[in-house]
Design goal:
This protein is mainly alpha-helical. 64% of the residues lie in helices and 9% in strands.
Length: 88
Amino acid sequence: MAAVSMTAMDLEMRRVRYFVAVAEECSFVRAASRLYMTQPALSRQIRALEEDLGVVLFLRDRQGTVLTRAGHQLLEDYRTKMNSTPRP
């Protein structure tokens, strides 16, 4: 069986996809369910993305999860890029 290799770009795109799910759901629990993964694993991936970017993307508390200014900017940039990418 051939080994599967994940490039850094693939990993970053996966983390951005996770970020978008949390942003859209406003909940790590609902986003994890939507992504078919556990909430702790999703939280680790989002923390890793935040560390890589050097910003906090979400404010987390008992009332829920909200985007920070940096989170709003990343979501807007992602949507702009996806809307401008030609589709086959």
